[in-house]
């Protein structure tokens, strides 16, 4: 079967580092932390009092007041990011077959704020069932993709992937596969999340998943550093336009990179912890490389899942060594979560964007806040990019995302060559 080639022709982002993808990318290169004290709610009684919030976001800059009230913040972030990506792609929708454009989105939690607010209002109202008619439509995790579809009239495949932190990488994988199988020419894909509220922070605190470095938020996310103590919650939305190559060339579209292959696996190990030897991560990376028709020595860069959790970073570093062996020393390895925090279901999308731009611009963003080596990580055998960006010619790169439930997803991008 002749599979079609897929390229990336549009990017959009609303993140803790900037309100466009260009601002976000520049901040990554500059090594800027998006962490600060929480402003979404009074977190003074919480174990974690900081996060990587989207800053200076006013919904009425993008929606009229009535429309904005119909969307949870998760959807607002996603719709804005998708609109930006569509605009960046320079698609003339008036000339496109809208039945051949789909939306596959990713979100791990969806409208958590809406759910929390409605249930709290119910409890305070003495048990009277006076819920908003928008409660369910605002809350459900699939609704962002639905709104993007309705907003632009896209009638191709439309659904949302929920696989915890792997959600938007799974979404990109599906979009890639549908295009190369000829089911559509274009997909709006990516992810959004907005969980920096009482329920989100309280829940992750109860699991002891988040850093509690309240005295120094900007240095709290420190993947692969000995003194890491958990991830830093992030929020935002990232949209990407995946397009069939001949269609993109036919309209003279700019091309950021080519989507080369994907790999998915299950740890089959633990509800929240990764397999300690990284066996599922090995499989997802290996399968992505094989799916791309490449071999391990072709990989130049890995944007890791790298959450800054004590167990996760060790497992992923073991997986890299297990799969790549001596070649790991020639691969630039980083974690942009050190700057963005962990966007949960949108993590794959923002890290996919960072991986694509690393290929496009020839720059690897740093893993910031690295200070001390962990005796459980082999720094001599892996080429980590710590604290300062590195210029490098990247032909092939992987982006990894691993989620609660043992969901592992890797996606391979490569420099576009006609």
How does this structure look, described?
The protein is 32% helix and 19% strand. β9 (301-303), α11 and β10 form a beta-alpha-beta unit. The protein is globular. It has helices at 21-30, 65-68, 73-89, 112-124, 135-139, 143-152, 167-180, 198-206, 245-250, 279-291, 310-324, 337-340, 347-361; strands at 6-14, 36-37, 50-51, 101-106, 158-161, 186-193, 236-244, 257-266, 301-303, 332-334, 363-364, 383-384, 390-391, 396-403, 407-414. 56% of the residues are buried. It has two domains: 7-250, Peroxisomal Thiolase, Chain A, domain 1, CATH 3.40.47; 261-414, Thiolase/Chalcone synthase (Peroxisomal Thiolase, Chain A, domain 1, 3-Layer(aba) Sandwich). The strands form three sheets. It has an eleven-stranded mixed β-sheet with strand order 5-4-6-7-1-8-15-14-9-10-12, with helices on both faces. Strands 2-3 form a two-stranded antiparallel sheet.
């Amino acid at each position: 079967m002749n599979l079609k080639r897929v390229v990336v022709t549009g990017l959009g982002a609303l993140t803790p580092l900037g309100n466009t993808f260009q601002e976000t990318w520049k901040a990554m290169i500059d090594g800027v932390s998006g962490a600060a004290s929480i402003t979404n709610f009074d977190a003074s009684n919480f174990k974690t009092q900081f996060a990587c919030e989207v800053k200076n976001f006013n919904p009425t800059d993008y929606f009229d007041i009535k429309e904005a009230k119909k969307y949870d913040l998760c959807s607002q972030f996603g719709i804005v990011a998708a609109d930006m990506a569509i605009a960046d792609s320079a698609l003339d929708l008036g000339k496109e077959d809208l039945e051949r454009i789909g939306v596959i989105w990713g979100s791990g939690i969806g409208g958590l704020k809406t759910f929390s607010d409605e249930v709290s209002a119910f409890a305070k109202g003495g048990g009277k069932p006076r819920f908003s008619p928008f409660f369910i439509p605002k809350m459900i995790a699939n609704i962002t993709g639905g709104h993007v579809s309705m907003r632009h009239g896209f009638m191709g495949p439309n659904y949302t992937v929920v696989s915890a932190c792997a959600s938007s990488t799974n979404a990109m994988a599906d979009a890639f596969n549908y295009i190369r199988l000829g089911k559509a020419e274009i997909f709006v894909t990516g992810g959004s999340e907005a969980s920096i509220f009482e329920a989100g922070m309280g829940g992750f605190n109860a699991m002891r998943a988040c850093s509690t470095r309240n005295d120094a938020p900007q240095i709290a996310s420190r993947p692969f550093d000995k003194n890491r103590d958990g991830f830093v919650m992030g929020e935002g939305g990232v949209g990407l336009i995946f397009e069939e190559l001949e269609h993109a060339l036919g309209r003279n579209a700019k091309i950021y990179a080519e989507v080369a292959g994907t790999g998915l696996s299950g740890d089959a190990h633990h509800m929240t912890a990764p397999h300690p030897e990284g066996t599922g991560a090995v499989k997802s990376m290996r399968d992505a490389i094989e799916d791309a028709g490449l071999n391990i020595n072709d990989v130049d860069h890995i944007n890791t899942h790298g959450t800054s959790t004590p167990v996760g970073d060790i497992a992923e570093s073991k997986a890299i060594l297990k799969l790549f062996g001596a070649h790991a020393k020639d691969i630039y390895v980083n974690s942009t979560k050190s700057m963005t925090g962990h966007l949960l279901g949108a993590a794959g999308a923002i890290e996919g964007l960072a991986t694509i731009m690393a290929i496009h611009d020839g720059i690897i963003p740093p893993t910031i806040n690295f200070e001390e080596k962990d005796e459980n990580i082999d720094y001599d055998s892996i080429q980590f990019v710590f604290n300062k960006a590195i210029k490098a010619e990247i032909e092939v790169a992987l982006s990894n995302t691993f989620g609660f439930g043992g969901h592992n997803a890797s996606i391979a991008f490569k420099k576009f060559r006609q």
